[in-house]
Amino acid sequence: MGKLRPSLGSLQHWTWSLCLGSVIAGAAAFALLPSTSVYAAALPKVDNIRVALFIETGKYSDTTPAVTLSSDKGLDAGFTGGKSKAGAALALTSGNQQVKAALEAYRALLLESADAAQVKAAAAKLTAAKEDSLILKRDRQGKPVYQLLSGPYTTKEAAAAAVKKASMVTSAADTIAGFAPRVTGPLHWNAGVFASEDAAAAQAVVISQAGFEADVAYLETADGTAYAVLTSSASDAAELSAAKQQINAALPSVALQPVDAAQTYALKRKALDKAAVGIVEQTQLMLGGGGSGKLTVSSKAGSTIKVEERSARSYRGSIELSQLNGKLAVINELPFEQYLVSVVSSELSKDWPLEALKAQAVAARTYALKQGVKYQIAHVTDTTLDQAYKGAAVEFASASDAVQGTEGEVLADQGGLISPLFYSNAGGLTADSSEVWGNKVDYLKSVATPDEGAEKGKAVWYRIVLPNGNMGYIHSNYARDTGKKNAAGLPYYEATDTGVSVRSAPYVDNSGNPALFKVDIGDRFVVFDQAVESNAYSWIRGPYEGDKLKDKINGALAQPIAGAIDHLEVSERGPSGRAIQVKANGQVVKTSYPDALRTLFNSLPSTRFDIEETGRYTILGANGTVRSQSPAMPVVYLNGSSASTAEPVSGSQMFVLNGSGQVRATDKESTFIFKGTGFGHGLGMSQWGAKGYAELGYDYKKILQTYYVGVSIIKE
To answer: SPOR domain: which residues (predicted)?
Structure first.
């Protein structure tokens, strides 16, 4: 967890205040504190928060080559930070038109044609090959031409390599016939600075009429913003010098000056929307220069801003664009309390009790303040790496009520703000910190939690086996009892629909749990087990083949397993029953911390699990003898009416019946099924548990102080 530190750049909204808790005599706001909790701590107070939508920090990376913005009322822009004292408003759009923004960079110019449809067709091939590209519209001596560029690339050499493979990517030599692809770069000449955008645009027309590229650019200045014309897109100094000679020869009245290397600018170009049907133009901004200025985009009339590349979500506040560590950084800055409304709405449901929402609001507020400036120019991300934040569209009224009803309230102990971790479901018992991190945190202890609501109303799935031996889970809605049973007394069912998926585990996930096979109407099968559909409270994962787990497991073993994984067991549990140690073939599987076991075993929902080994079972023999059978042991023989009729068990499957009449499938080769409860690391507040406690009559303060043991709720 990063410390909160003074503001950086435009983080001027962060201020500090001293909160003395219940030390302040007669402060009604602190009447909710236990008398034993008299804490004095310097707590941060924030007006605006900065949320990273796309950013590259080295430790965290979620990037996009370009971002597409729009607002129903139109967009304005202005520079902030760097040289600029204030961001003068630049009118980007007046309606719901899109603005696309990217960084100036090296690119491969693959095609230039007057035929827009031809260029779009080539662009579609690049998109299919997962190559980033854009289409620019240029005016060349009074006529439009369209340029297809791939990229961006960080170096000229990388762009040159892209030029070489262009014909292979487009898969059609005639799409670039008659045109010699080349590298373009971020080097320009300044052809003049003007008082208005119209004046700059007129100069750009003069230069383009002569056959040269020219674009209006917004320049960051001490007074805010100026308008310039930048010409040429050279990839090196030699190209830049040659371009100057050509322009001077054709237009001797145009004075060309070097672009200030310490100045931020945004080129304004025309581009084609590659995804649109037909020829649809959009504004293209290219952010460049060596300055530290940032381009802040805001909506007119306080409307929201849609970001297409972020699942087309709409955000309150402004969107800041800048270059950070060589990548486009996209930051959403908005009022802190409004951010919390979206977080609560993103994390929980509008149908949940208000007291549960309030508990989430206080935890979310504390968490965000605790982070400080965690990501160089942003406090948090919009992902569950921090806390879910899905913009304005998800907001609901009771979330706003929860934020307002707890305004300024945070969780603290004698050391200041705590780290109020939360997650979906604890499976009935929260984790002790030692079970997750391997070390103790006083306020993170294992406590009971009413999490069962997550499986309420979930369907039953049947575990079935077909006559051909195929086995898996089928949703109970698609199977009916025939009323008949097999010799072992197990019921025959049949499918009630066509093309019904049968899966490894009882839940639908076409990526993580695809159909093993399908059954059609009338197909008959035996039901030998059943389970509730996997949910946040209880779940099943697997079966996983030992050979496929072995590579991961061997990486965590002192002595790698050469043969098959015959035995996998939870060898040590923590206070809540979570696995903190697992052994494979008797060897301890070492992880950096206990919760890493989830990742090791194919991203399990939690570490509160048991392991079922399908190749291992216990045989009760004559005279009370017991034998534990595994694939590594000698063959099992089944006796008939006399010893002479004993036959070895053959085939890859066998079904065993225990003394309680329960049937279990076993395999000749071991596979491993994980059955568990809980969803998440288990530390701190269970969201489903908070709902359960609220339904039992707990208020949000009691909920929070149940999950965070010994802490106080104080006001900023």
So the answer is: 112-166
165: Cβ contacts below 8 Å, ≥ 6 apart: none
Q: Are 429 and 448 in contact (CB under 8 A)?
A: yes
Predicted pLDDT at 169: 58
Q: What is the pLDDT of residues 463-490, one digit of tens each?
A: 999 999 899 999 999 999 999 999 888 9
Name the token pair of 649.
């068990």
Confidence tier at 36 by pLDDT (50, 70, 90):
very low
Return the C-alpha torsion angle 378, 384, 389, 395, nearest 10.
-160
Secondary structure in 3-state letters for 495-534: ECCCCEEEECCCCCECCCECEEEEECCCCEEEEEEEEECC
d(C-alpha 566, C-alpha 500), whole Å: 34
The C-alpha atoms of residue 554 and residue 248 are separated, in whole angstroms, by: 68
Contact (CB, 8 A) for 599 and 612: no
Sign of CA dihedral 125, 131, 132, 133: negative
Q: Are strands 133-140 and 106-113 parallel, antiparallel or unpaired?
A: unpaired
* CA–CA distance, 140 with 155 (Å, rounded to integer): 27
**C-alpha 215 chain-centroid distance:** 36
Contact between residue 332 and residue 50 where contact means Cβ atoms under 8 Å apart: yes
Q: Which phi and psi angles does 691 have, rounded to 5°?
A: -60, -45
Q: What does R_g of the chain's alpha carbons equal in angstroms?
A: 32
Cα pseudo-dihedral 103, 104, 105, 110, rounded to 10:
100
Q: Do the beta carbons of residue 268 and residue 283 sit within 8 Å?
A: yes
Please state whether beta strands 257-258 and 187-194 pair in parallel, antiparallel, or not at all (unpaired).
antiparallel
What integer pLDDT is reported at residue 583 of this predicted model?
94
* Residue tagged 């300024």 (tokens): 408
Q: Report the half-sphere exposure of 40 (CA within 13 A, side-chain side).
A: 3
Structural contact between residues 378 and 59, judged by C-beta atoms closer than 8 angstroms: no
Tell me the one-letter amino acid at 2.
G
Domain ranges of the chain: 1-54+333-420+684-716, 459-532, 615-669
- Distance CA(595)–CA(609), nearest Å, equals 12
- Work out the mean pLDDT of the chain and round it to a whole number: 86
Encode 223-241: b = buried (16+ Cβ within 10 Å), e = exposed: ebbbbbbbbbbbbeeebbe
Tally Cβ neighbours within 10 Å of residue 507. Answer: 21
CA 165 to chain centroid:
32
What's the gap between Cα 299 and its chain centre? 26
Q: Which residues of 581-594 are buried (b: 16+ CB within 10 A; e: fewer)?
A: bbebbebebebeeb
Residue 436 CB contacts under 8 Å (≥ 6 apart), including other chains: 578, 593, 594, 595, 607, 681, 682, 683
Q: Are strands 294-299 and 257-258 parallel, antiparallel or unpaired?
A: unpaired
Whole-Å CA distances, 581 to 116, 287, 430, 547:
62, 51, 18, 20
**Contact present, 301 and 354 (Cβ < 8 Å):** no
Neighbours of 441 (CB within 10 A): 19
Q: Check: CB of residue 163 under 8 Å from CB of residue 180.
A: no
Q: Alpha-carbon torsion 164, 166, 171, 173, what sign?
A: negative
Find the helix or strand (DSSP H, E) in which 182 lies. Answer: strand 182-184
**CA count, 13 A, side-chain hemisphere, 67:** 29
> Do residues 210 and 232 lie in contact, with contact meaning Cβ atoms separated by under 8 Å?
no
pLDDT score recorded for residue 709: 96
